[in-house]
Design a protein that fits this description.
Layout (H helix, E strand, L loop, with lengths): L6 H10 L8 E5 L5 E5 L9 E5 L5 H13 L7 E6 L17 H10 L11 E5 L15 E5 L2 H8 L7 E4 L2 H6 L8 E10 L2 E8 L6 E9 L3 H12 L4 E9 L18 E4 L12 E4 L2 H11 L3
Parallel strand pairs: 3-4, 4-5, 5-6, 7-8, 7-10, 10-11, 11-12, 12-13
Antiparallel strand pairs: 1-2, 8-9
Helix pairs in contact: 1-7
């Protein structure tokens, strides 16, 4: 099963794991605007291990999926594993009085999924959560499994391109991914703001004569990655590419990653559906083989 917006990723997972049985959903609305959702193949759910590919990028998607997930106990699901490739947690604290932390709301909703008849709490697999404190947004009513897709993405990149050092656009990225590629030279950048201007400095390492791979968990406007790449090139890097787990890329952000820009190639996963990358240097690496293998490792029946 999957969110209406995750059908493409779900289809890729089915190709990677032909043993799975797809469950069809009807995501309609009545004239009043209220939801008219139907699990068409509900008989497949009874006594089954249910896999659900979620999409938490918009409030509408969250509420729709929560309604379906809460109904699975009623239809007799034996167990439930929810893959939430991207958790919307870029705003993770109250930085101004009155701020609503949406990520905490999402976590509360998914924490209320009823326990299943066979195995109890639903398991929620989340990739590359943005801030460590967000793991505590969830309650003990669900079993959380926080993982990273970056080792998988790096392995896929190495099949076509050889990077000779890795770089982090800020200290936060270094902290999150410090254990990656331990044998390679490391570069760390630091961001300063002067009014509306963003200034990036290299504070650790030397990119001179190297093919640099910038690493971060997500990309929003792309400004930090682009300015970091410019700093690398100015310091003598032979080439700069970047990889991120989550391509948020709101508005026209995709248009910043063009062939004449400082980033030669931007690798992203399909944790968030992207409508079009035409004319950009973005390459989407599907998580389907990774998720399919996780399913095999979990369910060995």
């Amino acid at each position: 099963m999957c969110a209406r917006s995750q059908s493409a990723l779900a289809d890729r997972i089915l190709e990677a794991h032909p043993g799975l049985s797809p469950v069809k959903m009807q995501w309609d609305t009545f004239e009043s605007g209220n939801p008219n959702f139907v699990i068409r193949d509900h008989e497949l759910i009874r006594r089954a291990h249910v896999i659900f590919i979620a999409d938490a990028t918009t409030p509408r998607h969250v509420i729709e999926q929560w309604a379906v997930l809460c109904a699975l106990q009623h239809y007799g699901a034996y167990s439930l594993t929810v893959f939430m490739p991207y958790f919307p947690g870029t705003l993770d604290r109250v930085d101004v009085p009155g701020r609503i932390v949406w990520g905490k709301t999402v976590a509360r909703l998914f924490s209320e999924i009823p326990p299943l008849h066979g195995t109890g709490p639903a398991r929620i697999v989340i990739y590359d959560i943005h801030a460590e404190q967000e793991v505590f947004f969830f309650t003990d009513q669900v079993a959380n499994d926080f993982q990273s897709v970056l080792p998988y993405l790096l392995g896929q990149i190495r099949k076509t391109w050889t990077f000779t050092c890795i770089a982090f656009p800020d200290a936060g990225a270094k902290k999150r991914f410090a254990d990656l590629e331990p044998g390679l030279h490391r570069i760390v950048c630091e961001k300063h703001r002067t009014g509306t201007e963003r200034i990036i400095h290299i504070v650790e390492g030397d990119p001179r004569g190297k093919h640099v791979l910038l690493i971060d968990d997500l990309v929003m406007s792309g400004g930090t990655l682009i300015e970091s790449a410019k700093a690398m090139i100015s310091a003598g890097a032979l080439s700069v590419r970047a990889v991120v787990a989550h391509p948020v890329l709101p508005g026209t952000a995709i248009e910043r990653f063009t062939p004449d820009g400082p980033i030669e190639h931007l690798y992203v996963s399909d944790s968030i559906p992207i409508t079009s990358i035409d004319g950009s240097v973005i390459e989407v690496i599907s998580l389907a083989p990774l998720i399919a293998q996780e399913i095999r490792d979990t369910f060995t029946y």
